[in-house]
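Q: A reviewer asked whether we had any structural model of the full assembly, not just the individual parts. We don't, so I'm hoping you can provide one. Inputs are below.
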Amino acid sequence: MPWVVLHMLIEIKELSIKYVGRKNPALEHLTLRFNAGETVLLLGASGCGKSTLALALNGLIPHSVGAALSGRIVVDGLDTQQATVADLAQKVGIVFQDPEAQFVTLKVEDEIVFGLENLCRPPETMRAAVDAALAAVSMPDAGEREVFKLSGGEKQRIALASLLAMEPQVLVFDEPTANLDPVGTRDVFALIAEHKARNKHTIILIEHKLDELMHLIDRVVVLDRTGQIIADGPPREVFDRHVDALRAEGVWIPQVCLLAHALRECGHQLDLFPVTLDEAAEVIGRWAPTAFHSSFAIAHRESVTCASLSRDGKGQMVIDEEQAVPFAIDVRHLSCVRSGRRVLDDVSLRVGQGEFLAIVGANGAGKTSLAQHLMDILPTPKQTVFIEGQDVRDIPSHKLIERAGYVFQNPEHQFVTNSVFDEVAYGLRVKGLLASEVEAQTNAMLDRFGLLRLARANPFTLSHGQKRRLSVATMLAMGQRTLILDEPTFGQDQRNAKALMELLRDLHREGRTVIIITHDMALVAEYAERVAVMSGGKLLFDGDVRELFARPDVLHQARLTPPPIAQLAERVPALHGALTLEEAVRHLSLVTGHLQMTSDKE
Amino acid sequence: MQTIYKAGDSFLHRLNPLSKVLATLPVLAFVALTTDPWTPLAIIGLNILVILVLGRIPLGRVLRILALLSPLMIGFLLIYPLVVRRELVQDTPLLLSLGPIQVYQGGLRFGIATALRVFCLISLSLPFSLTTDSSDFIRALVQQWNLPYRVGYSAMAAFRFVPMLQTELSLIQAAHRVRGISNKGGLRAQYDRLKRYAVPLLATAIRQAERTALAMDGRAFGAFETRTYFKRMAFTPRDAAFVLGFWLACALIVVTLAHVGLLGSLVLLQQV
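A: Here is a predicted structure for the entire assembly that you could use as a starting point for your response.
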């Protein structure tokens, strides 16, 4: 926007922040400026200090959080270290990741006036402020609703409304969609778009679901692990020129940018480096003519629907005449009612041994309930869930955990000892193995998961990615053939998420059954063979991943959105049917190969 | 937080929470002193009437709540006659004699009276708990009874932690079960288990508390010594009418019972 005179709103000078009790500073000598009206995306690997910076912007550091701060942050003329919390709250508002934790009261209206009351605004002005704030988040009639009954997306709208009431100039969103399902995420992005369009705020975003967001971003700032800026500029420049540095840092990159890079690596130059879905659709559509698409549409990976058929029968129990090997998991007409609500409604699902299944669906659709019933974690009725042909209710729990592992969403929940080594060895010791065997097997497992050098560390001191790997390792230590994971990539940076998923893929290739619960459709498209869609406690869809993304009706009903590449493929005929980056590249190289051939002939 | 409150707009719902406390507290204290079965019975009746008519709580719901309390009542009824001091009741007819167990009519009467008294005390809390929004209560305490607002709002936030911690604890228990930790074992095993739950539970609680605190501070909580209130809590003539009316009705019951000689001695006056 060259006609807008850029006016500096936030100036960060030589900022260093070190938390009490930490060895390394979270941020060091950071110098950065934000201009009024900009929408800035802040990227960085986990632990790089993004959230620390956000908290420093509205003075929560150092006013509320114990940390040593040096350097200066000036927001619209106010030095955050000298200004009061009250003044800063009217300059910078932060929407946090966890919608539950940021509410103080029980009713929407109370929540919105909370800040105004703290600022001692006259009560008679508050009605108008509440109405304006609710209108600004398109929920004009929500005042009387209870905050805990709102959907995830609505909660974030109300969280924003309660900040808008205080009329801040700067809005910070710190991973606002991390806890939301795909449609809730879209809802929050739409909200951000509305506010950008109003042009009243400077918006700073910390987020890693990028593709549906990029059209809003004016500028990208990337921090490295030590809190230093490694790239700062318009999205096109950052994702085009600095991609190697970003990759090395494990930072999330929009899929369309990765696609453009992949094409470039194959020797294809696009006339514009795309950063948004719109741009990608246009540039790639122009470059790869439509006429050739149909012959390549079918070119996609062969899907193994039931890998168990190809493997020889190890199980003793035959439960299906045609099937010599019992299903890894067989759910028959499972229903479950919890506090008056039908959480699961007549769900039947069979998972063959060696399958890779993703369970997807909106928040509260019953995914986790279903998964927990598979392991009898939630009380399961008799004759409804069978593991390897045997009713889970008939398997003693110490035997059950040798057959299947369950990784909870929060890895910390599952740590039961004081060292990484003991964590993995725990199950083996319970099983009664000899000390030497325990040691050998544990070390092998730790080695495989890259945790060997941390064997003596306390599990709670590990990094997020390490904790997650450890929790997976503990669930495989006893040689479990089935692994169930609840949101395995939650809160992880790109590098850790990818490492974990590759690990799961390896386990799957070894013949293990892997079941993941996830909101990340790109993950589903890339790794899962089969997908089960839950909606309102019912199994809405069960089948091939590709088939799911070709069913807009199912996606809509289950509040899901196709992965970015699939969205692109809907608009670019040459990409028809592609779901993942790899497929998209293959489609395009085939098309261009074909092009090459035809032009050679001419 | 899981409470038995349900929103509504009945007379009781619209009362100031504090007037409900004011109305019931003296009655509560008095009933605690009674020894006869009739006073609690009459006050229970009055309470149910208040809940049904002034609170417009459906009868079915009231009965369900009362039914929940019945095991407690039955417990008092069964145990009291067995543990009552013998010299208090041995003048009354013997109802049952089973070896060392001897049940006197007086003992049974004590049991009934005590059960009713406890029942009455609980029922006295119902007009408040069934119709009062906890945030309104805290608001009233802060605005009218000078509870420091920082304490009040912190209490409100802490309330919300209870269900969160419950969910979290059951999650951790489930997560540990999957690790192969059985729920069996003696005291020692119980202790070890609790110790294992403590770390992840505390970690979550602290993290959550930190997040809530940041969200509150981020909206200028505690910036000034006072704050203003969108929703002003005040006593209205309606509140005065309710408090006085309730006291009057209770007094009437007590006087009537005393008049017909059914009001037994009070604990304070009783010779023990």
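A: Points you may want to mention in the reply: Chain B touches chain A through 46 residues (CB under 8 Å). Chain B has a mean pLDDT of 86.
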